């Protein structure tokens, strides 16, 4: 006897579950990378604020122009780094959106397979119930005929 449809769907369901979990992991890792970049950006902002304050303090104290120029060069590099990290964050968010879409596709596919499997199980249970009912009806009918034949 061949396997029931619901049983044949089990490997498909397991594969869909595995693919959905893998996609969720990839999406989660992508979000973690965005958070790390955002943390890095916050640190760069803090550094820039500290160096801004240091430059203002030094300029009030009358420090040499060479020292101020060094700080300005450093701050320009810092601003470039801030822009670069900002771009990285934007790109990473786009990648994350793609990963999220992929995960959602896998999630929806898994749900569809599970729904089909449940439908098959329901259909199979209905067939089993009908067969049991038919057997009970036949048994009762045979019993009824035996009783009638015994009374005759």
Helix percent reads over 70%
The CATH architecture: Orthogonal Bundle
Overall morphology: rod-shaped
What is the alpha-carbon Rg in Å?
35 Å
Number of beta-strand segments: 0
Weakly predicted, low-confidence segments: none
Elements, N to C (H/E): HH
Largest sheet: none
**CATH topology-level fold name:** Helix Hairpins
Question: How many structural domains does the protein architecture include?
Answer: 1
**H/I helix tally:** 2
Terminal CA distance: 43 Å
Structural class: mainly alpha
The CATH top-level class label: Mainly Alpha
Q: Name the average pLDDT.
A: 93
Structural account:
The protein has about 150 residues and is mainly α. The chain has one domain (about 5-115): Helix Hairpins (Orthogonal Bundle), CATH 1.10.287. It has helices at about 5-60, 65-150. Helix 1 packs antiparallel against helix 2 (about 65-150). The longest helix has about 90 residues, at about 65-150. The model has no long low-confidence stretch (mean pLDDT about 95).
């Amino acid at each position: 006897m061949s396997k029931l449809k619901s049983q044949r769907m089990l490997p498909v369901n397991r594969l869909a579950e595995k693919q959905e979990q893998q996609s969720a992991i990839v999406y989660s890792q992508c979000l973690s990378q965005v958070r790390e970049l955002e943390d890095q950006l916050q640190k760069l902002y803090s550094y820039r604020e500290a160096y801004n304050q240091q430059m203002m303090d030094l300029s009030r104290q009358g420090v040499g122009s060479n020292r101020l120029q060094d700080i300005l060069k450093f701050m320009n590099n810092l601003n470039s780094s801030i822009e670069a990290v900002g771009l990285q964050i934007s790109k990473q968010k786009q990648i994350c959106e793609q990963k999220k879409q992929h995960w959602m596709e896998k999630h929806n596919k898994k749900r569809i397979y599970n729904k089909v499997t449940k439908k098959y199980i329901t259909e199979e249970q209905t067939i089993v119930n009908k067969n049991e009912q038919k057997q009970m009806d036949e048994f009762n009918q045979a019993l009824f005929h035996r009783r009638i034949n015994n009374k005759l």
